[in-house]
Amino acid sequence: SPGIFEGYKPRRQADFDTLRARGVRTIVSLQQMPWDIWPERRHALSSGFEYRNVPIMASPLEPGEEAVKRALLLLNDRSLRPVFVHCFAGKDRCTLTVGLYRIYFQDWKPEDAWAEMLGSGFHVRWTLYGLEAYFWSHTGAPEWVRSARAVSSAIQAAR
Predict the structure, then answer these.
(1) Which of 8, 20, 96, 135 has the most crowded CB, counting CB atoms within 10 A?
(2) pLDDT beyond 70 at 147
(3) What band does 8 get if pLDDT is binned at 50, 70 and 90?
(4) What is the pLDDT confidence band of residue 115, given thresholds at 50, 70 and 90?
(5) Beta-strand pair 26-29/50-53
(6) Tens of pLDDT along 134-145?
């Protein structure tokens, strides 16, 4: 998506340099563990990036709806772009988030978003069943998406 990049957790200075070279302004981490979040936050902030963390669980249980909503609203916030969204490996939680973004904000068909997710390495297995179940039970845009789209349209029209 224009202004949205996805991938694995940046680990080395070279990873942050690559993000900087691509013009990324904001890093959105979907990780949960403090020992993953804290060092990355420090590194991102010291490298001049905005940093947001929205913990999303990758497990047989579905992730929390509020967390997914917060992540999607961050991706939709044009003032944060270009944005880089990631989980640990860049194949499951962030791919789910981008897939739902495509459905909710870019009017993709769920089947097309699912095919892109699979092509990006999304894992279909019991240990991550919650992500798959969440996707298929949330393919219809909730009311908050319509509100967010209306706000985005109004901001664009005012410019």
Answers:
(1) 96
(2) yes
(3) very high
(4) very high
(5) parallel
(6) 999 999 999 999
Chain centroid to Cα 128, Å, comes to 17
The burial class, CB within 10 Å (0-12 / 13-18 / 19+), for 64 is middle
Query: Strand order of the sheet with strand 50-53?
Result: 4-7, 83-86, 26-29, 50-53
Q: What are phi and psi of 48, to 5 degrees?
A: 90, 15
Q: How far apart are the first and last CA of the chain?
A: 21
Is residue 49 within 8 Å of residue 81, measured between CB atoms? no
Instruction: Give the DSSP H or E segment for 155.
Output: helix 143-158
User: With left for phi above 0 and alpha for psi between -120 and 50, is residue 15 left, alpha or beta?
Assistant: alpha
Q: Is 133 exposed, middle or buried (0-12, 13-18, 19+ CB in 10 A)?
A: middle
Cis peptide leading into residue 82 (ω within 30°): yes
The mean predicted confidence, pLDDT, of the chain is: 93
Main-chain phi, psi angles of 27, to 5 degrees: -110, 130
